[in-house]
Amino acid sequence: MIIEIDDQSGFCFGVVKAIQKAESELQEGHPLYCLGDIVHNTSEVRRLEEKGMYTIDYTALHSLNKAKVLFRAHGEPPSTYQLAQQQGLTIVDATCPVVLQLQKSIRNTYKKHRGEARQIVIFGKKGHAEVNGLVGQTEGKAIVIETLEEADLLNYNLPIEVFSQTTKPLADFQRLVAKIKSRMASGVEFLFHDTICRQVALRLPHIAEFARKHDYIFFIAGKKSSNGKALFAECQKANPRSLFISNSSELTLEMLPKISYDKLSIGICGATSTPRYQMEAVKDRILTLVHQKK
Ligand code: SF4
């Protein structure tokens, strides 16, 4: 039996940096508050909480005073920085550099065209932390579009400038751009910026290839991870014998295929929020179950 762990699955550099920042703060022995889950992975959040990190929500942030608060890789809108300052909090800013750059571009565009009838459009998930951070750069004026259909709500007689949430699929962004282009009134400006992070975009074609290479796929991710959902959908498309699990303890003997193990090739992969040790734990669990069955 062959079991391969995908070497391109696992934390992206933005998440690695955020976790490193949290760990180095925790080493100093002071409590650290993280605004929202540092990564959409329960085990990793729990591991850091055991080291002294507290995960808080926005309501709890309002009652926090003179403490250290970490802003995760997704980034925050300016209003969160203001609130933290008002409450005397020390900010540990772990916003991913890619997201910071995108926030800056949107902020500059907004400032440059303030007062003009320009529609700044963000292609992303409404209410997602990163998108909230991006909309915040425009004092809440940006229009968030989640699907291709929602582009029907734009005014094609006025200039449009589109940005994308970093984790949107590239093909969907290209379809959106093509649709807007085909509808724009003649002579009206349309600008678009492909701001999709390649750490994620390049994983889609790669994971499809990886899934095709194996008989069975075990895909590991937290249930809340949108990146996990997108990557798993790609796995299933390429190989219908793909199973989604959150951690090794969910893996049972019944989930293992019933053909001779000697001929099997199993692939293990995951999302950008899946730690490597979880994929290794799944491999160990498969080997233990197979051994028990024999
Ligand atoms: S997916 Fe890209 S933009 Fe998002 S945190 Fe990771 S490296 Fe940064």
Tell me what the structure shows.
This protein has 294 residues and is α/β, with parallel strands linked by helices. Helix content is 41%, strand content 17%. It has helices at 13-27, 42-50, 58-62, 78-86, 97-112, 129-135, 170-183, 198-201, 203-213, 226-238, 276-293, and strands at 2-5, 32-35, 53-56, 68-71, 90-93, 119-123, 143-145, 160-164, 190-192, 216-220, 242-245, 265-270. The protein has a 4-stranded parallel β-sheet with strand order 1-12-10-11, with helices on both faces. A 4-stranded parallel β-sheet has the order 3-2-4-5, with helices on both faces. Strand 2 (32-35), helix 2 and strand 3 (53-56) form a beta-alpha-beta unit. Helix 9 (203-213) crosses helix 10. The protein is flat. The model has no long low-confidence stretch (mean pLDDT 93). Iron/sulfur cluster is lined by residues 12-15, 73, 96, 98-99, 166-167, 197, 199-200, 272.
What would the keywords be for this entry?
294 residues; alpha/beta; four-stranded parallel sheet; 11 helices; 12 strands; 41% helix; binds iron/sulfur cluster
Strand content: 15-25%
Please estimate the helix content: 40-55%
Q: Any idea what the shape is?
A: flat
Largest sheet: 4 strands, parallel
Number of helical stretches of at least 4 residues: 11
Q: Provide the low-confidence segments as ranges.
A: none
Gyration radius from CA atoms, angstroms? 22 Å
What is the oligomer described by this structure? single chain
Strand order in space, largest sheet: 1-12-10-11
Number of strands: 12
Q: By helix and strand content, what is the structural category? A: alpha/beta
Spell the H/E element sequence: EHEHEHEHEHEHEEHEHHEHEEH
The first-to-last residue Cα distance is: 13 Å
Q: Output mean pLDDT.
A: 93
